[in-house]
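Lab notebook, bench 4. Continuing the backlog of folding jobs that were queued last week. Each job is logged with the same field layout so the records can be merged later without manual cleanup. Today's entry covers Glutamate synthase domain-containing protein 3, a 226-residue chain. Filled in by technician R.K.

JOB TYPE: sequence-to-structure
TARGET: Glutamate synthase domain-containing protein 3
LENGTH: 226
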Amino acid sequence: METIDLKTASTRELNARLQGEGAGSNAAFEVLHPDGRHALACGLTAPIAVSIKGHVGYYCAGMNENATVTVHGNAGVGVAENMMSGLVRVKGDASQSAGATGHGGLLVVEGSASARCGISMKGIDIVVKGSVGHNSAFMAQSGHLVVCGDAEDGLGDSIYEAVIYVAGKTGKLGADCVEQEMTSQDRATLTELLARAGIEADPASFRRYGSARTLYNFTIDNVGAY
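JOB STATUS: finished
OUTPUT FIELD FOLLOWS
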């Protein structure tokens, strides 16, 4: 394992080193003293493993493709934003907009996530061991958001075809978001997501939320829902 110490290396130097790995690489890196720096381990394309020992700032692991990035601490705004594939794991809590606009891959938050977790998600799967803040999965288009704790007001506001599973309490649901039947397929999907995330929870304790599809096309009868 190669160690990069950010007490002596810059963020630009770190990202250039990680981005320089070829498509067939499975190298492993340890990053020391992140000290809340922004934009660490961004734009990775090789299936490498990056272990960041401490808290990170904004947009850590953004635009990730194939890489496995583990943050041994808390993450600032926009962790794993626009991720395409791979795995990003936050051992602590995540700030706002975790997994925003993600197209694929898996984001695991072992603590809780703040507001707008999974905003405009486009295929990413997100598993949060704790709770999520307001307006999570806002305008979520596809993928899954699993919340093992509670979800605050505005969950799934203006949601499209993403699916939300919540084990705890929910606040006031967002516009066009409704509770739906939990099918056997949902339980199988949820079981698989929890296993991939390495989080133990009883799938039978979750409820499913999704789109009522009343906002897909404007009709005057639905004006109250906007």
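OBSERVATION: The radius of gyration is 18 Å.
SIGNED: R.K.
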